[in-house]
Amino acid sequence: MAHWLCSGRTVQVEGLVSRFDPRFWTVDFPRPMMASVVTTGPDALRVDAVFYKADDLAGVIWAAEDRFDHPLLKYETSRDFRDCRLRFRWRSNGVMALDAINGPTLTIEGRDAAGVARAWYVRLWNYAVGAPEDAVVSLDFGAMVGGYALPEDSDPVWAGDIDRMFVSLVPPDYTKVDVPLAAPREGWVEWTDMVCEGPGSVLAIGDAVVPEHEFRIAGGYDDSYNLTPARLLRNALHLGYRGSITHYVGMIWATDLIESRSTSRGGKGQPSTSTYSYAASFAVLLSARAILGVGRIWAEGKLLRGAGGDFKTATGFRLHLGGEDQAVDPLIASAEGGATPAYRGAAYAVFEMLQLADFGNRIPSLTFEVIADQGAVLVSTIARSLAPEVSGTAALSVGGFAASGGSVRAVLDLLGQASGAWFAPVGDGLAMRDAAAAVVQVADEGFAVGDKGARRTRAVAAIETVPRTVTLGYYDAARDYQTGVQRARRPGAGVRDERIEVPAVLDAGAAKTVAEAMLARAEAGRVRRTVTAGFAAMAIAPGACVTIVGEAGVWRVTDTAIEGMVTTLGLVPVTIASIPATATSGRVVGAVDAVVGATILQAFEIPGLDDAPLSMPRMTVVAAGAGAGWRQAALLYSVDDGISWTAAGASAAPGVIGVVEAVVAGGLATMIDRRGAFDVRLAHPAMMLADADADALDRGSNLALLGDELVQFGRAEPLGGGRWRLRTLLRGRRGTEAASPQVAGDRFVLLEADAARTIDLPLSVLGREVRVMASGVGDVSPVEMRCVIRGASVVPPSPVHVSFTRDGDGGATVRWARRSRAGWRWIDGVDAPLAEESEAYRVTIAAGGVARTVDTTAPLVTLTDADLAGGAVSLAISQRGIFGESLATHVTIPA
């Protein structure tokens, strides 16, 4: 793209803008106070301020010279204000009222008639009608008088050479002393229904448009804190920037970052770990009018809230729709006190404790899908909302529209250009009409006026006057409301491309149809027809639709002239609606809208999965969601049946959780089970399982809890719909072979290190119930589960390999092998490490209806001939550990 460095306009396009257009006011203030100015409509602005010191003063500024816009786009410098009058409605709260001693003052800086620099101070209350916080202010710069009390303090203003003017805003307890206020004070001022009249009420303004290019742009607060967002956006768009534009806008209240710390205890001999997380609460202004709701929300381009209303990151959320009776937000009120505004008439959203880990621990930039009206909106409805004097209907409907421009007229012109409609005078207002308007028939009678002869003419302009292509920019809903482009082309001569930016939501086909209709109207507009008619045609006004007797087609009246009882009508053809075009938005990679769903919680006690033995009971928590978008849940647990709760931080990564649907009986836990199988149904189809070969199984892969038994599986066969069949089973892992047999409905939990959250508990909970509570962003109420801590995580496993030998004297010796809470891998091939303070066993011997208990420190026990004399003998063998006894291994010695 060709480029040059310009210092001013030469032959570039210019337009007109109203002097005092809301977009071009600025605001300034001393630090540390803060203030911002935004446009809330084509004829309205709003200033919000926070005062920290008793002498804080903000100025709402209009400068005669535009020092902020690009040289091709700035408004003309005009220091003579004598031929203009400004009128607006003033509403305020939290600032000094209009009638106060230090109330809002218009300070005018310039020179007097003799060229001597000076300033005038105009008390706005002297030119206001109404209440001190709700009044209409009317300023005639040609007859303005400064001073506090008039006429006593009158100081006539000479407005012929003004540099700038500003309206001062101060806190209600303003004292002119540099001391902190007892508490920060928030205030706001709104100017609405702004009208500037008189010969000096308009200024020339640059209207050049640079072709779209590949560069991008971002605004910076330090460079543009005092400007309206609408002004910055106008510069960016006119200078060819498209796509994403990063800009600071909309936040009306925020807390500092809120730090949270959670501590997890390490294992024996290991230090505890502290984890820090950050959150923030803030409010974002969405609209200067009431809305119906909010759909999706994006944060840093990633989907934060899905179409179903689910949040992908934990946060509280409240939406204020902007009604005139809306209440103060309770969170903001609790932080700011009784002076908190309710922002009635403006829609805003409040985020409470938004977790910031996903956004680099800073508040992200947000994009909202705002639903202002129910369904598509006719452009004529938009026109009536901007200008109540507009009536009529135009057929084009859009999914949304962002009204912006130099004036209401500019927006109405844009709506007409896009829809093919025009505005005709009707009474005191305007009627919006399109090709469907009522038609009047006229006859081209060719009357002669005086000696001028008949006046029947038809003129056709050269094809080169018609654009070769029309390019339409719009907001494409299929692209998450990013800018889309559609083009219409015609054959033949010409090179000119006409581009129009329509800030409306359209689908690709509708945008293509609009572009083709614009091109068709441009081609039809080459024809100009003049009709001369009699006295009766005098009632036909510009904007009417007519047909000509004996000729085909419908014509729009552009101008009328009456001379000598003859009416002359200037006409252009009216094109009928174009056939709907087909177009595509291109390949769209939209943000994934995965449903979060309710939290699914599993809490259980299992033997430790590490080689090191545990020194305190451990509960394992695995959580997931009913939807694929679930990420985390906050955890609490109680060891005293809910009397008190302890925060356990957040859950780990989403686990793979389901239920057992069917059980196929198989082999023993001491063998690889190739006959048995489990059919399980996972919580949602996005959860996946995988196979594991022998090496992976040896490394501990595919370990799952089915009921209360730990099982490894080598084969996972998908059955469809989130159902899987598990085969090639290693049963009873980590000493859980004594668990009850599985039945349909038992839990299935895949045990993976990054999905398991472990909680170490005090020894006092052994034998007691622990309540666990989880709360995720998709939960209406917390999900709770109870887990009985029986000691499976800290007691030794039961002995194995029980055998006996008969003695020569009629007795027998029973031997067994111990197992250990440490050294499950059995790397060295010798006895497992003890992992207890001493080796000890308790054996219960039942013979002849009599039971006795024997404690031993060796893995054997001797039975006497008396024990065996009564028939078969039953033994229950338990290993005694630091924290309790293992489950018993049962064996029977026949008689």
Features:
41% strand, mainly beta, 8 helices, 6-stranded mixed sheet, elongated, 895 residues, 6-stranded antiparallel sheet, 8% helix
Describe this structure in words.
The protein has 895 residues and is mainly beta. The chain is 8% helix and 41% strand. It is built from eight helices and 60 strands. The strands form 16 sheets. A six-stranded antiparallel β-sheet has the order 3-4-14-6-10-9, with no helix packed on it. Strands 31-37-38-39-36-32 form a six-stranded mixed β-sheet. The protein has a six-stranded antiparallel beta barrel with strand order 44-46-49-48-47-50. Strand 21 and strand 22 form a beta hairpin. Helix 4 packs antiparallel against helix 5. The chain is elongated and about 145 Å long. It starts with 13 loop residues before the first strand and ends with a strand. The model has no long low-confidence stretch (mean pLDDT 87).
Task: Provide a quick synopsis of the model.
With 895 residues, the chain is mostly beta strands. Helix content is 8%, strand content 41%. Strands 3-4-14-6-10-9 form a six-stranded antiparallel sheet, with no helix packed on it.
Q: In DSSP terms, counting alpha (H) and pi (I) runs of 4 or more, how many helices?
A: 8
Work out the strand percent: 35-45%
Query: Uncertain spans, ≥5 residues at pLDDT below 50?
Result: none
Biggest sheet strand line-up = 3-4-14-6-10-9
Number of strands: 60
Cα-to-Cα separation, first versus last residue: 102 Å
Q: Would you tell me the structural class of the helices and strands?
A: mainly beta
Question: What is the helical fraction, as a range of percent?
Answer: under 10%
Mean pLDDT: 87
Largest sheet: 6 strands, antiparallel
Shape: elongated
